[in-house]
Fold:
Amino acid sequence: MSVKEFNFQIPKYFNLATNCIDRWMDNEEISNKTAIYEVSQNLKIKSISYYELNKKISFYSNFLLGKGIKKGNKVLLRMENSIDFIIFFLSIVKIGAIVIPTSILLKKRELKYIIKNSKPSAVISKTLINFFSEEKIKVLKPGKIKNKSPYKYSVNIKKTLANDPCYITYTSGTTGNPKGVLHAHRSILGREPSTKFWLNLNQEDIVFNPGKLNWTYTLGAGCLDCLRYGSTAVIYSGNHSINNYLEIINDLKITIFMTVPGIYRQILREINTDIKKTKKLMKVKNFLSAGEHLKKEIIIEWKKKLNKYIYEGLGMSEISYFISNNPMEKLFPGSCGKVQPGHSAYLVDNKYNKIPNNSVGELVVETKDPGLMIKYWRDPHETKKKFKNNLFLTGDIFKIDSKGYLWFQSRKDEIINVLGFRISPKEIEKIVESIKFVEESALCIKRIGNQKEITSLRVVLKKNRIKNPIKIINKIINSELADYKKPKEIIIVSKIEKTINGKIIRLIKN
Structure:
């Protein structure tokens, strides 16, 4: 299908789970093929076919119904990366309940807020059982469900509308409480342009995203979209390891690899040390990046080493990947690409008027877009702030060029105010990261006591030793920036503090 021919087809009745799995049961070739590989820290592999996946989803759907979970109830899912995570996610969705996928890294304080905000009817978790019991939530323990249980494989479920609530993901707040992003069943249809014009996905593909499944980048593009297309998804249950990623890519013959820019940077460092490791990447047809802006230096070096580009995609919790570079079109390093076909997204001025090419404005999405969230759960104030004039305001500031390519400028909510001056961290970071010995940087606000705040520049150096790096950085900043933009302090650090989803934590408490 060409870019010009694409348009969304959204039926009245639609269920995300049945659309991913049940549709393949009459297709003998796909029902018998591997749906998911699960790879552990020691590289042991588990797998499940589409047929067995469907059977288990139906089994656990009946289990949930038997425990009193009904359409519209909310179920909090707290599990490590695993095939079971996907089974329970889709089982909850299949019966019309609303699933809340969460990270096993969340502490009790963070979980308390999510529980208070979402009010789940039950939780599926292998740990923190006493904590959930104290919170008066019904705990469904996966290990206690035996195959001899009297649950059948056919499920009597009520139909769901495409617009019915399906899942809630909680954004990782940097300075305040996380927001619950409520998505409809139609959200997976809203990602169809991504699968066609970013992943370039087909049934023969084996897709690997090493991220955590509570993140929509991994869960959506890295798994659910693959199942919907009849391809194979790879889930990694181990700890972060570049060598493990390279082994998995090589051993499972990965055709599409997707991750965040920081991982690509680490892979480049690894293959620069051992050039033989590039062979493990040669059979990948498509490298994708999302989660944060992909710097053009990484794209250029990757192209130089592997003779392939990394294709950036842009999405957010509220609307998954609706802008990207297309592997079938020309790539301009530094640009995140164009608005994907079918999506109603463009740049506007301060009065929400659409602006022409060669202009700078805020990226917005029309509220009719099928990939867009329904609302922030139990947060009408934040919802109202984001929806204006039948538009969803992303808060991303872009420049659009004459060919429709978008060039990221800054985040509206990352603009730092100092003594009445507005400072863009990205502007300062771009200058600092152009210095040869700088690996990464982040301009942050450092809070001292209850009143005072200063700008603090955190800098990660490359391995080579540099004499007086702060003095050199200061000299370049002084020559490039107005006085009010200069950070009050520069600190050399081993890493930039980020949220689970890879966003820089801008507020630092002294």
